[in-house]
Amino acid sequence: MNARALLAKLRHGENPEPEELSWMAQALASHEVSDAQAGAFAMAICLNGLDEAGRAALTLAMRDSGHVLSWDLDAPVLDKHSTGGVGDCVSLILAPALAACGVYVPMISGRGLGHTGGTLDKLEAIPGLNVHVDEARLKQIVAEVGCAIVGATADIAPADKRLYAVRDVSSTVDSLDLITASILSKKLAANLDGLVLDVKVGSGAFMKELEDARALSRCLVQTANQASCPTTAIITDMSQPLVPSVGNALEVTEVMQVLSGKALRKPIVEVVCTLGGVLLVQAAVVPSFEVGVDRLREAIASGKARECFGRMIAALGGPVAFADNWARFLPEAPVIREVPSHASGVLSEVDGQALGLCVVSLGGGRTKESDPINPAVGLAEIAPLGSKVTKGQALAVIHAARSEDADRAEQAVRQAMTLGSTAPKKRDLIRDRIVF
Fold first, then answer.
1. pLDDT means over runs of 10, the chain (436 residues)
2. What b/e readout covers 45-64, taking b as 16+ CB neighbours within 10 angstroms?
3. Which residues are known catalytic residues?
């Protein structure tokens, strides 16, 4: 086999055989193919696409380009993946809540991408915490605590790492086939008994339109199930931040308020319980979705999920007493300033992407991979969509490293939040469910 023959096949709209895609994945991982050939491969798929069988074959080939985990545990191994949103810290609540319900959650997560925050970046706001552990330590933490949120090791789906970098510079990021293979190759490498996908839609998500979110959901669910991983997709609304804070340490604070029982009615709890309820019934841990939701709510309200979270933080090198006194450990920005509204009205629109980019400009995200992150900066107390605002009332509170950063952020916040005379149409938080 060789790259030239495979690329010619793709260029003519033919689907490669699984053996050819397997060879290509291994060649990507080993750098046997050049960057030019990798870019041509991505572009050909982006332009001509693959059929369902081809998409599944590519996903499995990328999974098998590296190591696939194995487990010897007494309960199902489950996980969740989010397509990314603003103020989305669901993973930090869901993983320990599921662990408190008696299942195992080895959650291999990522960093911030564009305007969306990354789960690993949020965790690293906690002093001393290390998300990079080897396979042996990952298995030990999962067995002892029930959950571990970590980064992928170098031998997990290495073909995806290579292809992802090429896609970023070759304008092939938005291919459904390549997105599906990228997401699922890493999740399937964890050898899961069940997976739920949180596909975001709205101003703070990558997918702005519901039909686009449905198309991605169908691709992901079909492919994962063809790979023998029971999977459901839940499409959730991201027309505003899921919690009223955006920024790494600020979102960890929101998480701890939920896990400490101080914010059990927040929208994020509904999303957590919906995703977790689907997983628990899908894995036959509970007899119905409703029972699963009740189990998760009880795990949070009783403090069991917080206990699991605290044990996970300690196992990853963070403070042993973090769960009991998180405010003592999280960093604070030196400049904290309200953004007063210049007029009165009803908050009719929130540009979530603009708020996310505002946090990036404050230093809370990256414009390139090597950028350092300031975990303390961000936006807090963001006014909710549909709220009545009077002149001088705070639209949000800026947490910045410098006054000049806060000045720029103040303008960005005002531009991202539109005041009108009537409340916007209320959208359901759970927009759709996609099953195979």
1. 92 93 96 94 94 94 95 97 90 98 94 78 96 95 98 90 83 87 93 96 88 94 94 95 95 96 86 97 96 97 97 98 95 98 95 94 83 94 96 97 97 96 90 89
2. bbeebbeeebbbbbbbbbbb
3. 79-82, 119, 167, 182, 186-187
